[in-house]
Amino acid sequence: MKNSYIKLSLFFLLLLFSCSEEAIDEIQFGTVSGRVVESGTFEPIPNVKVFSSPNSSIVFTDANGNFSMIDVPIGDYSYQAKKDGYITKFEAATIANGANTELVFELELSTSENRPPDTPVLVLPADNATNQDIQVDLSWTATDPDDDTLIFQVILKNDANTDEITYPNITEPTFQLTNLVYGVKYFWQVTASDGINALVYSSIKSFSTTEFPITRFLYVKKIGQNNVIFTSDDDGNEIQLTDSATNSWRPRKNNQSNKIAFIRSNGAQNHIYIMNPDGTNIFKVTNNVPIAGFNSDYINFSWNANGSQIIYPNFDRLYRINSSGSGLTQIYQTPTSKLISECDWSFDATKIAIKTNNLNGYTAEIYIISSSGAFLTQVITPIAGAVGGLNFSVSGQKLLFTRDVSGFENANYRQLDTRIFQHVFSTGTTSEILTQKPPGTVDLDVRYSPNEAEVIFVNTSNDFLSTRYIQKYQIGTIDSRVTLFSGTTMPDWE
To answer: 447 and 455 in contact (C-beta within 8 Å)?
Structure first.
């Protein structure tokens, strides 16, 4: 009997233990992991509070926006990601036994409590400031009540046209305006953004740039692969007129029209353009017939006296065109199919000097034709060596040019001993202007000074690799050769 009682007790104990074990096994768990990022940018957000309802546990995201929870009882939950400055986001999740559930929260910035930036206050230049340089430093003050990072933009208008230029993504309350136009009134305004609220606009202030300075010299500098036109006053204060991204050369000023004509590459062709003395209002004059010859570096054109017309060569033909681009007329064609490289139109419009040469630039000659194309007289008969730089005196009674007296010729059009000459029509004589040219150098691109007492020209070593200098010389005065500009070519002095 006693053994039976013991056996029965053991049975119930085993039964009870078995039931308890099954009850414990029924409580099952899973894990939750995920990331919290900014909506739109997907940048991680650290220190975000993540918790669930029903409540399981509370965690915070790390520096990479990641979080994880372990031993989460299975079931259905609503998880929240919450941080000041952001809109709380909810994500539903079902936790399965032994499984990991991944959640991604994309939080949007909250604007409900964020205040907009204070209105920017424009400081410099002062309102209605005058005589400002064409490079102006702007400055302003700006604050944000929530210490948000501010991004600015500058809005610029002017009284010369309807253009509105916006300079965005400025991170400091300063900005430098460059390449402004002389003699223009500008209006400027600043906006501030905290990335949350709407843009805040400053008041509008104005300033005026100084008038364009008086400059009489024009020349060309090489910038990269391009020729670029500059102007300068007597003190050497220079201003760039054409963009470094374009190839522009051979500037010629006409004082009566107050325009500068020049040559510019246009695709595979070269064309004549005109612009204002400050480099604005560039206009393409030639279209159907480009300016062309044996070598674009040595080709030239000429204004008439009042600036209404331009003559220019196209291989063996000479054309006249109105500065407006209309009225294209052929006025001459060489009888021997030689190429016209240079031309100059006398001030009284009665004579045109032209220089012709063969395909290599040699066998050059200079002769004079009338404005209608009739042959008048010969200055130089076909001669060996390079010839160039035609320029009439204002009276039309003298003609400047250069000639390589060595007679040297090669495929690169190199010159060895190029000097300045003057032809006097009244006597029919040609003589050298003795400029005390240094040995081993050449004088090129000669022009009369405005008073014709001096000549301006380019001097360089006859290796044609050394620096080029624009110099002037007072005719008939010993030791009067003076260097005006270094690293420059193609001068014009009006």
So the answer is: yes
- 285 touches 270 (CB < 8 A): no
Q: Which residues contact 476 (CB under 8 A, 6 or more apart)?
A: none
Dihedral of CA 20/26/27/29: which sign? positive
- CATH number for the domain running over 217-493: 2.120.10.30
> CA dist 41 to 36, 80, 106, 109, Å?
12, 20, 9, 11
Query: For the residues of 211-256, what is the DSSP string, one character each?
Result: PPP---EEEEEEETTEEEEEEE-TT--EEE-S-TTS-EEEEEEETT
What is this structure's pTM?
0.69
Q: How would CATH label the architecture of 121-209?
A: Sandwich (2.60)
Burial class (CB in 10 A: 0-12, 13-18, 19+), 401: buried
Residue ranges per structural domain of the chain: 29-107, 121-209, 217-493
The answer to whether the beta carbons of residues 277 and 268 sit under 8 Å apart is no
Q: 29-107 and 217-493: same fold?
A: no
Which tokens belong to 150? 């501010």
Q: Which residues, 6 or more positions from 81, have their beta carbon under 8 angstroms from its beta carbon?
A: 36, 48, 49, 50, 88, 89, 91, 105, 107
From the candidate CATH numbers 2.60.40.1120, 1.10.10.10, 3.30.70.260, 3.30.390.30, the one assigned to the domain spanning 29-107: 2.60.40.1120
Beta carbons within 8 Å of 452's beta carbon, 6+ residues apart: 393, 394
Nearest to 273 by CA among 295, 297, 251: 251
pLDDT digits (tens), the chain, 494 positions: 444 444 444 444 444 444 444 444 577 999 999 999 998 889 999 999 999 988 878 999 999 999 999 989 998 999 999 998 888 899 999 999 999 999 999 998 877 677 899 999 999 999 999 999 999 999 999 999 988 899 999 999 999 888 999 999 999 999 999 989 889 999 999 999 988 888 999 999 999 999 888 899 999 999 999 999 999 988 888 999 999 999 999 999 999 999 999 999 999 999 999 999 999 999 999 999 999 999 999 999 999 999 999 999 999 999 999 999 999 999 999 998 899 999 999 999 999 999 999 999 999 999 999 999 999 999 999 999 999 999 999 999 999 999 999 999 999 999 999 999 999 999 999 999 999 999 999 999 999 999 999 999 999 999 999 999 999 999 999 999 999 999 999 999 99
The answer to whether the beta carbons of residues 42 and 11 sit under 8 Å apart is no
Distance CA 233, CA 212 (A): 11
Alpha-carbon 203 to chain mean position: 30
